[in-house]
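Incident review: delayed structure delivery

Summary: a single-chain prediction request sat in the queue longer than the usual turnaround. Root cause was a stuck worker, restarted by the on-call engineer. No data loss occurred. The affected request and its eventual output are reproduced below so the record is complete for anyone auditing the incident later.

Affected input:
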Amino acid sequence: MDSVEQFILSGRIVDIALAVLVIEILWLSWRYRQTGRGLPPSLLFTNAGAGGSLMLALKAVLTGAAWPWIAAALLASLVFHVADLRHRWVHAPDSSSSTKDPNDP
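Output delivered after worker restart:
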């Protein structure tokens, strides 16, 4: 078996992707706290939770885990995704208060 194929099929690629995701979230959260710029950590957490859960589901499939583990990871991704959408919806700018041209369709 090719070494790249083994690296992917063993799920190690997912481990590296998850490590990069954690480092990214920590750095972006630190930067937000220092500068006040960027996305708030709560939004980063829900977004990363959805993606991270999908990565865990992929790892479960690649490593031959039992189906309940795959289902649990996919369910977690759904929960994080819904929380992310809710957070974005609640904190979206109010479009009714914008200065819109009345002649614009």
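Verification: The CA atoms of residues 61 and 67 lie 8 Å apart.
Action items: add queue-age alerting; document worker restart procedure.
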